[in-house]
Design goal:
8 helices; four-stranded mixed beta sheet; four-stranded parallel beta sheet; disordered C terminus; 2 domains; alpha/beta
């Protein structure tokens, strides 16, 4: 109908909440995993890799182990359930009193809708009394909490990071997900390589037109790669002791030249900072298809997205990295 609008309304009367026994004043206390978790789940959890003190390294095998754990045993448990007596035209509790009240015309709105309306109890006397007629109780909301709370502390740290990365990878399109990956690089690379003559000013080789570019630097900031003729570059390679990938401004991607291949090798890669989303390296389609086998590092800190100019995208996950000791997400 022209000039008409519709609205979906839910009316509920909350009657109680059931919470997990380890919630104390709204905060999950010190849970005993042996009570809540099945023995096989607890055994699997204890068998997975954990961080060592003063170290944030996670191996590829360790990351894959946690992903397998999520798939086999799940990642969350029900920590709270809210229950209510619901009174709507389509009642969730299936209370038989609803059908009777509808037949008796107790939901009919004579003044505005000319039909049954959830607003009838507020518009006229003699309408259905939703506070007394309906007695059946049904769950109206369920809250989940991470199973990671049952893990030993240094395993819980890995759990949170790997799960966050997995969810960001899964919902990279169509969702405004802000994972806030932490870049906990223990090195001040700019100070370490203070005298290394890093690329600055107008950027890297800004006036050079060549199909092959190989960059050898102690420290390089990928955001400073700004070529005047990027379309002419077929092969682009970076070899550095330290590679910096800064946090994006307004989610802008960092365009990396190379229509055929892009290769990056760094002893340490520090990606992002404290921003809501990780940096995005945007490659040509051919280079994007090959990047998983052409990106190497000894240590990786932060989060990174790699996308294609044609719209393909991926988030680097630990199991996609070459098997390099000390790497991490």
């Amino acid at each position: 109908m022209e000039h008409w609008s519709y609205v979906l309304v839910r009316r509920s009367r909350k009657v109680g909440t059931a919470t997990h026994p380890y919630y104390q004043r709204g905060i999950l206390g010190n849970p005993d995993p042996s009570i809540t978790l099945r023995p096989e789940t607890l055994t699997a959890l204890k068998s997975h890799e954990k961080l060592k003190k003063e170290s944030t390294n996670i191996s590829m095998a360790g990351a894959n182990g946690y992903l397998s754990l999520y798939e086999t045993f799940g990642s969350h448990f029900i920590s709270r359930v809210d229950a209510a007596e619901i009174g709507s035209i389509c009642i969730a509790s299936k209370d038989p009193s609803m059908e009777t009240s509808l037949k008796d015309g107790l939901w009919f709105d004579h003044k505005y809708a000319g039909t049954n309306s959830i607003f009838a109890p507020y518009l006229r006397s003699g309408a259905v009394n939703v506070n007394t007629i309906f007695k059946k109780v049904v769950a109206i909301s369920v809250e989940l909490a991470s199973l990671g709370v049952f893990a030993e502390y240094y395993r819980m740290l890995i759990w949170r990071r790997i799960f966050k990365g997995a969810m960001y990878t899964k919902y990279m399109n169509g969702s405004k997900v802000a994972p806030y990956f932490s870049n906990n690089c223990p090195y001040d690379l700019k100070s370490v390589f203070k005298g290394s003559n890093p690329i600055s000013g107008d950027g890297l080789l800004s006036t050079l037109a060549t199909p092959t570019i190989n960059v050898w630097q102690e420290l390089i900031d990928l955001d400073m790669i700004k070529l005047q003729f990027p379309d002419l570059v077929k092969t682009f390679s970076v070899f550095a002791s330290g590679i910096l990938i800064p946090s994006p401004n307004d989610n802008a991607a960092i365009d990396i030249p190379g229509t055929r291949t892009v290769t990056m090798l760094g002893h340490v890669i520090a990606s992002g900072g404290s921003g809501p989303v990780p940096p995005n390296l945007r490659l040509e389609s051919s280079s994007f298809k090959e990047i998983k086998s052409r990106l190497f590092c000894g240590e990786f800190y932060g989060g990174l997205q790699i996308s294609s100019c044609e719209g393909d995208g991926d988030r680097l996950r630990d199991h996609e990295w070459p098997d390099v000791p000390g790497k991490q997400r």
